[in-house]
Design brief:
Layout (H helix, E strand, L loop, with lengths): L1 E6 L2 E6 L4 H7 L25 E2 L18 E3 L3 H16 L15 H8 L16 E2 L5 E4 L8 H8 L5 E4 L6 E4 L13 H5 L5 E3 L3 H10 L3 E6 L1 H7 L12 H10 L4 E4 L1 H17 L4 E2 L4 H10 L13 H17 L6 E7 L12 E5 H11 L3 H10 L20 E3 L1 H13 L6 E5 L22
Parallel strand pairs: 1-4, 10-11, 10-13, 12-16, 13-14, 15-16
Antiparallel strand pairs: 1-2, 3-4, 5-6, 6-9, 7-8
Helix pairs in contact: 7-12, 12-13
Length: about 450
C-alpha cells in the first residue's frame, strides 16, 4: 500500500512496509550507515542513520523505523549532522587511525564517512592503540583495533550457518571476534566476513610481495590462470562503472607484470567437472565435488564421516595447477617443477590450498600488486584505463567438453544437502556446492559488498 510522506520538505511516495532508509533510497536520498545490511544485519547498532522525525522524541535510526502516512523526516538537519559527527568522533577515538597505511584506505566506508563529516585522521594519535592482530589463518588477518563493532561480520558468518564470529563482553570491553584464534576454529575460508567488513579490521592476507619476488628472481616460469570472476571484477576495483569484458586488458597487464602465459580457467573448470561426473557415474554412493575449497574444508572439519564421499579430484585450482604445469612443460620443454601456476580468483578459501606448484591470489590482491607496480593507486587507475587489449585475450589451452551439474550456493544450502547425504536421502549423484551466496562472483576476494547490499 502506497503512502505519502515528506523527506527534507519534499512530498514523496513510499510503501507501508518500507523503513525510512528504504523510502529515502527509493526517492534518491542517501542516508549514511555502517552496520546495516538488508536482510542480514538490521540491528541499528551504529546510529549513523539517525534522522529527525516531526513529533518523535530523539533521533530514531532510519534502518528500523517504519514509515507512516504524513510522516515528516529530515535526513540532514544540523541536529542530525551533529549527532552523526559525535558518533564518528567516538568511533575514531577507539579506532586505530592508521588510514594511509591501511589496506582499505581507498575502500573504507568508515573513512569515507569521516571525510564527509569533517573528521580528520590527523586529529587522532594512531600510536595510542596497539594492533590486536590474529594472523593465524592462511586467508585473512583480523585486527580488532580497527573494528567499529558494526557486527556485520557476525551477521555474514551467521548467514553462512557457521557462527564462528561473535560479540563478547559489554561496554568498553566489548569485542567482536572468534572465541579462539581463527586457525583453531571451524572457519572454512569463505571470506564473507571480509566482504562485509566496512573497515580494515578484516583483510585478505596479502601474498603479493612474495609472488613479486618469485617473478623477479626468475627461478620459476610463472604462468597465470584467470577465472571469469576475477576478470569480471577487476575493472570494478578501478572504478569502472560499466560491465566490460576485461580479459584482453587483464592479460596484457599480467604479462607486463612478468607472467609468461595467461590462461583462462573455463576449459579447466569444464575438465574438472567432467572428471568428477565420471567418478560419480562409477560410484554407487553420492559424490561431493571438491571444486570449491570452502566446501571441501566444511566436509573435512564438520562432516568427517563424509570424507569418503569427496571426489578425490581436488579443488579447481589444484586441478588447474596439475593440468597447466604438465601442458606448459611439454610446450616449453622444461621440467614441471620449474613452473609456478598462479590461480587468480575471487575466492579467499583458495588461499587455504597447499598444492605443489600453486599460488593463489584473490582479485583484491592482484589489484594491490598492480598498484604497487604503478607506485600509486592514481597512476594505476590511469594505466589501467589506457591499457590496450591483448589481441588474443588468453593463451590457448586444450578445450574440454562442457559439462553441467546443478550447483547449490551458500554454506547453509550446502549443509542441507550434506545432511541429506548423511541420512541417505540425497537423490543426486554429484553434489556441486559453492560456499558463497551467488557463487564465485560474490567471493570474499571479489569487490566488496557495501552496507546497502544484502548477502542473501
Amino acid at each position: 500500500m502506497e503512502i505519502t510522506m515528506k523527506l527534507n520538505g519534499k512530498i514523496c511516495a513510499a510503501d507501508t512496509n518500507d523503513t525510512i532508509l528504504e523510502a529515502a533510497k527509493k526517492n534518491g536520498i542517501e542516508i549514511p550507515s555502517l552496520c546495516f545490511m538488508k536482510g542480514c544485519n538490521e540491528i541499528a547498532a551504529c546510529r549513523m542513520c539517525v534522522v529527525e522525525v516531526a513529533g518523535m522524541r530523539g533521533l530514531p535510526p532510519a534502518c528500523v523505523t517504519k514509515v507512516r502516512e504524513g510522516m515528516e523526516v529530515l535526513t540532514d538537519s544540523p541536529k542530525v549532522r551533529k549527532a552523526r559527527h559525535a558518533t564518528l568522533n567516538f568511533l575514531a577515538q577507539h579506532h586505530r587511525m592508521i588510514c594511509d597505511q591501511c589496506s582499505r584506505y581507498s575502500d573504507c566506508e568508515f573513512h569515507a564517512l569521516c571525510v564527509a563529516y569533517g573528521i580528520s585522521e590527523r586529529d587522532y594519535n594512531p600510536y595510542k592503540m596497539e594492533a590486536d592482530k590474529d594472523a593465524s589463518a592462511p586467508h585473512l588477518i583480523r585486527d580488532t583495533s580497527k573494528c567499529v563493532q558494526c557486527q556485520r561480520c557476525v551477521a555474514a558468518c551467521h548467514n553462512q550457518s557457521m557462527d564462528i564470529v561473535g560479540a563478547f563482553h559489554r561496554g568498553w570491553k566489548k569485542k567482536v571476534a572468534p572465541a579462539q584464534p581463527l586457525a583453531q576454529t571451524d572457519c572454512v575460508g569463505c571470506g564473507q566476513c571480509v566482504a562485509a567488513c566496512p573497515t580494515g579490521a578484516l583483510s585478505i592476507r596479502d601474498d603479493t610481495v612474495q609472488l613479486r619476488n618469485l617473478i623477479r628472481q626468475k627461478k620459476k616460469h610463472v604462468v597465470a590462470v584467470v577465472t571469469p570472476a576475477a576478470a569480471g571484477g577487476f575493472g570494478k576495483l578501478f572504478y569502472e562503472t560499466e560491465q566490460k569484458d576485461n580479459a584482453g586488458k587483464l592479460t596484457a597487464m599480467l604479462k607486463k607484470l612478468g607472467f609468461e602465459r595467461v590462461y583462462s580457467s573455463v576449459s579447466l573448470q569444464d575438465a574438472h567437472l567432467a572428471a568428477e561426473l565420471e567418478i560419480a557415474a562409477q560410484r554407487k554412493t553420492p559424490v561431493i565435488s571438491e571444486g570449491c575449497p570452502a566446501v571441501r574444508n566444511l566436509v573435512e572439519k564438520q562432516y568427517p564421516q563424509l570424507r569418503a564421499c569427496l571426489s578425490g579430484v581436488g579443488t579447481q585450482q589444484a586441478f588447474a595447477a596439475r593440468f597447466v604445469r604438465r601442458f606448459y612443460a611439454q610446450e616449453a620443454d622444461i621440467p614441471e617443477e620449474d613452473i609456478l601456476v598462479v590461480y587468480l580468483n575471487s575466492c579467499t578459501a583458495g588461499k587455504t590450498e597447499t598444492a605443489d606448484g600453486l599460488f593463489t591470489l584473490t582479485t583484491y590482491e592482484l589489484a594491490f600488486m598492480f598498484r604497487r607496480a604503478c607506485v600509486s593507486r592514481f597512476t594505476a587507475m590511469k594505466v589501467w584505463r589506457e591499457q590496450l587489449d591483448e589481441a588474443t585475450p588468453f593463451d590457448p589451452l586444450p578445450k574440454a567438453e562442457a559439462a553441467t551439474a546443478i550447483t547449490v550456493t551458500g554454506l547453509g544450502a550446502v549443509r542441507t544437502e550434506l545432511e541429506k547425504i548423511q541420512s541417505g536421502s540425497y537423490e543426486g549423484t554429484l553434489l556441486k556446492g559453492a560456499a558463497c551466496p551467488g557463487g564465485c562472483s560474490t567471493g570474499g576476494g571479489a569487490p566488496r559488498h557495501t552496507s546497502a547490499e544484502s548477502l542473501e
